[in-house]
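Entry 0007
Protein: Methyl-accepting chemotaxis protein
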Amino acid sequence: MRLTLKLKLIAVFSVLVLALIGVAAFGILELRDYNLQVSRITEVYTPAQGLLLNADRDAQQALVAERSLLTLAPGSEEFDAQLASHGENVEQISERMEKYAALVDADWSRGMMEQFWPEFAAWTEASGTLVQDLSSAVTDQQQQALASRSISDLNATFDAMRDVIDSLDEELEGVINQEALEAAASYQSGRSLLTVLAAGASVVGIAGAAWLTVTISRGLSQAMAVSQRVAGGDLTETAVVRGRDEVADLLTSQNEMILKLRAIVTEVSGGAGQVSSGS
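Output (structure tokens):
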């Protein structure tokens, strides 16, 4: 195959373009992985953690409302306000935990949520029964009995429910930290590899340019040297032809010219010698 200068240029630039495409493709893949990890943190785990914290706050507020009912007269405005607050907070706990379960669909989370719902149901049933009994309590003795039940029996179910929420939050915090570490590692690894690949592409481009420069300049320098010798009348040397490109064609043409000039000089010298002998 005849490797012309045009083909050499196409080959060098093709290799350079492919190297740059490879660098860009690798960079896109690394950025995609990094973005996925960051997206999981910002769009899944952080909102889920916020839901857990708010659910825990709602539980505390429901407990405060429940204890406040023990000190208020049934039917009063303050009693009705705390009763509404208790129901609202219980409902919000359920809604937030359902949203959390929809966001974090991991095995460890599903297992802990299976523990949460029975504990939540036990607490809401016990607390709801207590609140209902408080609404109908009319004597101090009845309220004291209900207060004792709230402190003894309901504390256990309330703490069991909150323990599950706290465990979920701790586990999720560990997942967030792990994701953050993996995202940082992916970023560092991708940046290092991209730097290496970019440097490799630069080396390929420089090497290709140097190869073309040497190939062309060496042949042209040799052609210039031959032309200068011919101009000075030296027809004894010809150029060394390497390759099969346009520069090689130029050197071959010069060599043919030198051989023809030698033949002409030899012929002229022979004719001049014969003329001298005839004289």
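Curator remark: The mean pLDDT is 82. Residues 87 and 128 are 9 Å apart (CA to CA).
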